[in-house]
Amino acid sequence: MMSRIDEFIDFLKSTGQNVFIEAEAKPGRMNDFISQYNRSYSPSINLRSDGIIVLQDDANKWGLELRVYLNSKLGAPLGIKITHNDAYRGDYSYRINDNDLVMELFDKGYVIGQN
Questions:
Q1: CA 101 to CA 92: how far, in whole Å?
Q2: Do β-strands 83-84 and 113-114 pair in parallel, antiparallel, or remain unpaired?
Q3: End-to-end distance of the chain based on CA atoms, in angstroms?
Q4: Which domain holds residue 75?
Q5: 96 sits in which H/E element
Q6: What is the pLDDT of residues 16-35, one digit of tens each?
Q7: What is the pTM of this model?
Q8: N or C, which terminus of the chain has less Cβ within 10 Å?
């Protein structure tokens, strides 16, 4: 039986999708994330990298949000919550807000930004 991440990657590859991964957080949390990311993955990223969204310190958000943007959900594995997207990243019709899934994608070679 395939793992959730392997099923998801198989779905992405079988549908030929390019995906975009972004991270959003307040400055302090974003700096922590970037340091962790750069210790574990390459290429290195910084606060100006495409896919990094730094919020104002007074934003009504508490933690890091990792998102995957994609163009189709047809055939996606069950158990992955994919929502319609028409407000952010206009080139992508759908998005997934799932920090655990994104961290697993990083472990499989996906990166912040365009994949």
A1: 18
A2: unpaired
A3: 26
A4: 4-114
A5: strand 94-97
A6: 998 999 999 999 999 999 99
A7: 0.92
A8: N
Closest CA to 31 of 54, 14, 57: 54
Distances (CA, A) of 2 to 8, 92, 94, 105: 10, 27, 24, 15
Number of domains in the chain: 1
Tens of pLDDT along 37-77?
999 999 999 999 999 999 998 888 889 999 999 999 999 99
Q: Locate tokens 């594995």: which residue?
A: 77
8-state DSSP, 67: E
The crossing angle, in degrees rounded to 10, of helices 99-107 and 4-14 is 70
Element (H, E) at 25: strand 20-25
Given a cut of 90, is residue 80 above it in pLDDT?
Answer: yes
Q: What H or E segment, with its residue span, contains residue 87?
A: none
